[in-house]
Amino acid sequence: MTQAERLLYLIKYLISENNELKSFHIPVEENVRRRLLRSLMNIRPPKPITQDFLSVQDEYLQEEQAKKGVISLADISFVKSGIYLWQGDITRLSVDAIVNAANSAMLGCFVPCHGCIDNTIHSAAGIELRLECSRIMEKQKIKEPTGKAKITRAYNLPCRYVLHTVGPIICGKVTKRDCDLLSGCYRSCLDLAAEYQLKSIAFCCISTGEFCFPNEAAAEIAIQTVKDYQKRNPSGMEVVFNVFKDCDYEIYKQLLG
After folding, report:
1. From CA 111, how far away is CA 100, in angstroms rounded?
2. Where are the beta strands (DSSP E) in the chain?
3. Residues 65-76 pLDDT 10s
4. Eight-class DSSP state of 91
5. What DSSP designation does 121 have?
6. Are 144 and 161 within 8 A, CB to CB?
7. Beta carbons of 85 and 253 less than 8 angstroms apart
8. Pairing verdict, β 161-166 and 200-203
9. Does pTM top 0.90 for this prediction?
């Protein structure tokens, strides 16, 4: 199959399993089809899927990943004492694990093409990621607590694993408990990475998007928690602070010196 043929196959398959969409007209424009596929993947509940679909999906997503390009630690110029700073799409990073800012349901974002990192990671990884998260949550039987972390495979991402953590939601003044919970997110991810003997981890800006944690305060907590961890655990684990917005890059750059 060509990439265009894979795209059409995946769209038709996902439409065919949704009775509400069976009369949906598939657009001709390729860029619109790509957004449509992402939307269909985003809204699909965690339910069984055929191996044929997964094979085509994986081929499609891996080619899309190759087009975006992969970033390794050697490609990142800002590094200081085992801490890296990189601005860009976290799904391009070839590290042992990237961190996903999840919600308490831990199933990814169901809003079509939403701009959150949860949606971005699940869309690039493929529907297998939601299926694995669903199995974890079915076994857990309760929502994921704030400040804790879970680990899954990364599927079609260039990293090996995804660490999912739920940050605090800010609805007013930031409290000490909010700060402690956010610090707990970073510690939980680092502890889980160490448990799996991982050597590199990339953090997103946990809680600063939809969860409204002030950016500078969140960055201060993130950096201090990581530095404290590295002092207590001189195992050589390398940490990337991955930012997307210019303002966050300037904040981290200033704080890291």
Report:
1. 16
2. 78-80, 83-87, 97-102, 149-153, 161-166, 200-203, 238-243
3. 999 999 999 999
4. G
5. H
6. no
7. yes
8. unpaired
9. yes
Nearest-angstrom CA–CA distance, 139 and 106: 12
User: Residues 6 or more apart from 77 whose CB is under 8 A from it?
Assistant: none
How is residue 35 written in tokens?
């957004």
Q: Which of 217, 216, 237 is nearest to 226 (CA)?
A: 237
In whole angstroms, give the CA distance from residue 66 to residue 211: 31
Closest CA to 252 of 226, 222, 213: 222
Residue 59 corresponds to which tokens in the numbers above? 């081929």
- State whether residue 10 is helix, strand or coil: helix
Q: Which of 254, 245, 253, 197 is nearest to 88 (CA)?
A: 245
CB atoms within 10 A of CB 64: 16
pLDDT tens for 13-33 read 999 998 888 788 999 999 999
Q: Are 10 and 37 in contact (CB under 8 A)?
A: yes
Q: At 148, which amino acid appears?
A: K
The CA distance from 161 to 194, in Å, is 13
CA end-to-end span of the chain, whole Å?
49
